[in-house]
Amino acid sequence: MAKHGFTTSILHADRRNDVEHGAVHKPIHPSTQYAYADSRELAAVFQGKAGFTYSRQGTPTTDALDKKISIMESGVSSLSFATGMAALSALFTTLLRSGDHLVASQYIFGNTSSLFGTLQLLGIEITLVDATNVDAVAAAIRPNTKMVFTETIANPGTQVADLKGIGELCQSKNICLIVDNTVTSPCLFQAKTVGASIVMNSLSKHIGGHANALGGSLTDTGLFDWSTFSNILDVYKKGPATGWGLTQIKKKGLRDMGGTLSSDAAHRIAVGAETLALRMDKICRNADALTRYLAEHPRVAKVSYPGLPNHPQHERAKELFGNRYSMLFALELVEGIDCFEFLNHLQIVILATHVGDTRTLALPAAHTIYYEMGPALRAQMGIADSLIRVSVGIEDEQDLIDDFAQALAKC
Ligand SMILES: *Cc1c(COP(=O)(O)O)cnc(C)c1O
How far is the CA of 354 from the centre of ligand 1 (A)? Predict the structure, then answer.
């Protein structure tokens, strides 16, 4: 089949895999178990032949979504989970062991940071570093370093990791590199291009895109040689080594831990994914217009957005993400304006957590999603008490500018 563009490939992915009755969507399969007329066939599927047994390990509907995610990320195979956090916890707990070392960006999603606390209690050593600087990552590598983890554009400070530098470093040292691509999505960035081993996406965000389903995914890019990774159990060393990592995550992480994506959510996410590129285009244009407007506003002290020329990693972001900078920006108002008061004046923008929705959302980050981590970690992540996180949606551009303008005028 000829290689088609991003959107064409997603729209026609189900049909290319022989969807039932000529339907244009893979149907929602609610069945918990799958029956076999021949007991030998049932045994064969249990022993590794492609097929379905019990839905905790996937259904035809989640499988169809997994295939689309692999297309989007140019990966070898993908595995979906009930949430992004289910994907991350399955990944870390099944590939790392007590005594292993993980180097991670200090600029990360709050719940991932909290998960790292749990991993440390289980005996996994973690060093947090400034991932905008590859030298800081290199300096943290030890003989027992098994993995490096980073996001692309960090939430909420919008720091852009040195993805190229980190990719080269990990490849030269044969260290497994995990990239959380949630904020950029495969539409703006394929982490495979910088040598990532596994790409994680929260499907709840851009890919689903409509705030009506939770999900998460892991994609193996095929670049990492799992035969060199000492934590793969012998029972999963079957077939080409490129598949071993995800096989172990599927068995130990999905089957045993049970954070399974439902067929219903998989369907909603797959429908959402059909318009990912269209939404992303509008989101990036809205965020560009809004941040340029706010950066000039006398009541605004600071706007952090990788698309603004004064952003410390603007040039890097431009090169990595094709001159588009996604939905996320951080806003700080001038001294004397209370961030809560400002937020309460917004009329279109919704005061809610979540990012990557079709609707524009805002919240006071230090007092909400980053409250539990405390002031010391917040300072390390560059989160000021007054910082407002904004996730830009697809509303009409002028309506968004007008909403911010009227709220600022009232402060
Ligand atoms: C939301 C998010 C997650 C977690 O995803 P859920 O689907 O909400 O569990 C992980 N990483 C980043 C960067 C996120 O924004």
Answer: 9
Q: Which atom of ligand 1 is nearest to the CA of 205?
A: 1
For residue 324, the CA-to-ligand 1 centroid distance in Å is: 21
pLDDT for position 373: 83
Atom from ligand 1 closest to the CA of residue 108: 13
For 6-273, the fitting CATH number among 3.40.1190.10, 1.10.3720.10, 3.40.640.10, 1.25.40.850 is: 3.40.640.10
Cα separation, 99 vs 290, in Å, equals 47
- Which residues contact ligand 1 via a Cβ below 6 A? 83-85, 109, 112, 151, 155, 180, 182-183, 202, 204-205, 214, 216, 355
- pLDDT category at 2 given cuts 50, 70, 90 is low
pLDDT at 131: 98
Question: Band of the pLDDT at 380, cuts 50, 70, 90?
Answer: confident
Q: How far is CA 330 from the centre of its chain?
A: 19
Is the CATH code 3.90.1150.10 the one for domain 276-410?
Answer: yes
Report which protein residue has its CA nearest ligand 1's atom 8.
84
> Which atom of ligand 1 is least distant from the CA of 183?
13
Task: Give the pTM.
Answer: 0.97
CA 58 to CA 36: how far, in whole Å? Answer: 17
The full DSSP string for 60-113 is HHHHHHHHHHHHHHT-SEEEEESSHHHHHHHHHHHH--TT-EEEEESS--HHHH
